[in-house]
């Protein structure tokens, strides 16, 4: 799973990135600190994986990961090269989902790009730039389709019709994500920026936690209107707590009224956004590993996540829910109890499955 962190300059994107990944991305109170996109990998805490590791005691326990991409701050006119140019919009095209970081904190030492702090206006600016960049993509594709249609009009008629509908939608400043299913499917193939699943992050002062204050309330209204999820956090606080001992950090968050870290809440939201689940594999006493896949993934495709040879030579999957395996105490004990099931090619992997893939090379 790869998630892009997007926002206006000085919204707190790189600070949040550092909190999430401890990757040390440059952070400074002036626009365009981020020139190239920083990419960091955060591991996902999963108590089920921890329990499996304690039971099996393998040489290594490998958690699932999320890649976060810190993309340079966008400004009005970014689609035509303003600021550091639309090269940064291109970086968003490769991610699975987008976090829209909206500044909801006052700080005289960190200038805002607009005269007044207004997360609704900031989101409108971001949405407009994404829509205008998408409009350029759609128009280029329309030109190609119309040229190809001269030789075979019927073969390209449906695509042209969908592209024209998308162009009209983007012209109105609407996101491709709000389009009917056929348009959304085409938008996904074109990798349109405004078609990406997204969630909103209200970046607030620590003193406004846990609810976030009036600016965060406005972000909640925006999220409710578009059917998105919103996470309220203080990126600065999260970055500082990332270096604390885990127990002390947890106690401090609890004192702030927070039940979990920003990373845990964002990853959980990302899982919901992309409809992901986790399955586990056990390789003898050598390795226990967690794998994120989309809900509904069939066993052969899940095997392909482990190794392409497994998908190509898939025979069957031996499956047990992690809770049953932990209760049994070992794979052998679970097998003796008849708890290990044999599943075939049409089995949809479930969250928490522990799977042994059988395949031929």
Keywords:
361 residues, Ubiquitin-like (UB roll), flat, 20% strand, alpha/beta, Rossmann fold, 2 domains, six-stranded mixed beta sheet
| Cα distance spanning the termini | 28 Å
Domain module count? 2
Query: Would you identify the regions where 5 or more consecutive residues have pLDDT less than 50?
Result: 25-35, 78-86
The percent range for helix content is: 40-55%
Mean pLDDT: 89
Binned strand content: 15-25%
State the strand order across the main sheet.
2-4-1-5-6-7
CATH topology of the largest domain: Rossmann fold
Broad shape: flat
CATH second-level architecture of the largest domain: 3-Layer(aba) Sandwich
Number of helices: 14
CATH class wording of the largest domain: Alpha Beta
CATH superfamily of the largest domain: P-loop containing nucleotide triphosphate hydrolases
What about the largest sheet?
A: 6 strands, mixed
Summarize the structure.
The chain has 361 residues and is an alpha/beta fold.
Write the layout of secondary structure elements.
Elements (H helix, E strand, L loop, with lengths): L1 E6 L5 H9 L16 E6 L3 H10 L3 E3 L2 E6 L16 H6 L4 E7 L15 H31 L3 H19 L9 H9 L8 E6 L9 H14 L3 E4 L1 H7 L4 H11 L5 H13 L1 E8 L3 E8 L4 H8 L1 H5 L1 E8 H7 L2 H6 L4 E3 L9 E7 L2
Parallel strand pairs: 1-4, 1-5, 3-9, 5-6, 6-7
Antiparallel strand pairs: 2-4, 8-9, 10-11, 10-12
Helix pairs in contact: 1-8, 4-5, 5-6
What can you tell me about this protein's structure?
This protein has 361 residues and is of the alpha/beta class. It folds into 2 domains: 2-272, Rossmann fold (3-Layer(aba) Sandwich); 296-359, Ubiquitin-like (UB roll). The chain has 14 helices and 12 strands. The protein starts with a strand and ends with a strand.
């Amino acid at each position: 799973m790869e998630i892009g962190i997007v926002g206006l300059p000085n919204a707190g994107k790189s600070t949040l990135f550092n909190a999430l990944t401890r990757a040390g991305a440059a952070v400074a109170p002036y626009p365009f600190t981020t020139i190239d996109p920083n990419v960091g990998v955060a591991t996902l805490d999963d108590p089920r994986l921890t329990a499996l590791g304690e039971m099996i005691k393998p040489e290594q326990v490998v958690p699932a990961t999320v890649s976060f991409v810190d993309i340079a701050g966008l400004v009005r006119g970014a689609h035509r090269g303003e600021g550091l140019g639309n090269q940064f919009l291109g970086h968003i095209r490769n991610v699975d989902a987008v976090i829209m970081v909206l500044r909801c904190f006052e700080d005289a030492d960190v200038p805002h790009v607009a005269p007044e702090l207004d997360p609704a206006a900031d989101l409108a600016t971001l949405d407009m730039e994404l829509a205008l960049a998408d409009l350029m993509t759609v128009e280029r594709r329309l030109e190609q389709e119309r040229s190809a249609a001269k030789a075979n009009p019927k073969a390209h008629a449906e695509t042209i019709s969908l592209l024209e509908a998308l162009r009209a939608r983007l012209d109105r400043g609407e996101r491709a994500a709000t389009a009917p299913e056929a348009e959304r499917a085409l938008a996904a193939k074109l990798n349109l920026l405004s078609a990406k699943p997204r969630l909103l992050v209200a970046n607030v002062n620590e003193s406004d936690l846990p609810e976030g204050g009036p600016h965060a309330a406005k972000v909640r209204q925006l999220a409710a209107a578009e059917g998105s999820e919103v996470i309220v956090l203080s990126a600065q606080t999260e970055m500082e707590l990332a270096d604390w001992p885990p127990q002390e950090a947890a106690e401090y968050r609890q004192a702030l009224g927070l039940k979990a870290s920003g990373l845990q809440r964002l990853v959980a939201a990302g899982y919901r956004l992309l409809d992901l689940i986790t399955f586990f594999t056990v390789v003898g006493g050598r390795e226990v590993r967690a794998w994120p896949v989309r809900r509904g993934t069939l066993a052969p495709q899940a095997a392909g996540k482990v190794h392409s040879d497994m998908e190509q030579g898939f025979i069957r999957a031996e499956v047990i829910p992690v809770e049953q395996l932990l209760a049994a105490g070992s794979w052998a004990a679970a097998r003796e109890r008849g708890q290990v099931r044999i599943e075939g090619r049409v089995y949809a992997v479930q969250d928490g499955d522990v799977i042994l893939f059988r395949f031929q090379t």
